[in-house]
Amino acid sequence: MKIAIVDESPARASIIEEGLVELDNREVFILTKREGLLAQIELIGPDIVLIDLGNPSRDVLEEYFAVSRALARPIAMFVDESDDAAIAASIDAGVSAYVVDGLSSNRIRPLLDLAVRRFNAFARLQSDLVEAKGKLAERELIDKAKRILMDSRRVTEPEAYGELRRKAMSSSKKIVDIAEAVVTAAELMGDN
Asked: Which UniProt keyword terms apply here (predicted)?
């Protein structure tokens, strides 16, 4: 497992690294500079990113949230103090675990596990959402094609769907592909 620790303080970074000693097959990278951070992280390609900010200013916090938004991996962020706005911003930025005043080596491993599990759960939800939106878009396209056939051929909805289905089966295509062709043809002909 590749783990990137982001901390401008080598002393604090060592506390996090200490908490990872029990992990087998780990490769730890400590990043202490904010300049080019996203590029450095992408180059490493870590499985998880642990960010310790201590007591950051609002600008520094927002800078790290921008990095978090750009990464598609679990992120645990450690801060000494926080407020409701920072917590909300961290969630919006995709931070998997936002830990206030909890930097101790014995807490690192459980927090790492939590961050990975929360990231995976959120990724599954996002995947399900994308799939649902795709199915909805397909359904809307098929309904539009049925309306076009119903209007142009004066057929019922089941008959229009039957025509789409027959054409899909005879051409070894999906119904949605046939529906897309019907809608495109209607748009070209100016019928829609």
From this structure: Phosphoprotein
| CATH for 2-103, options being 3.40.630.30, 3.30.310.10, 3.30.565.10, 3.40.50.2300 | 3.40.50.2300
Assign domain 129-189 to its CATH architecture: Orthogonal Bundle (1.10)
For residue 191, name the pLDDT band (cuts at 50, 70, 90): low
Under DSSP, the state recorded for 118 is: H
pLDDT for 137: 96
Q: Between residues 146 and 86, which one has the greater pLDDT?
A: 146
Show Cβ contacts of residue 95 under 8 Å, excluding neighbours closer than 6 positions.
65, 68, 75, 76, 77
Q: Quick one: tokens of 101?
A: 């005043």
Separation between Cα atoms, residue 54 and residue 76, nearest integer Å: 13
Phi-psi region of 84 (alpha: psi -120 to 50; beta: other; left: phi over 0): alpha
The answer to whether the beta carbons of residues 30 and 44 sit under 8 Å apart is no
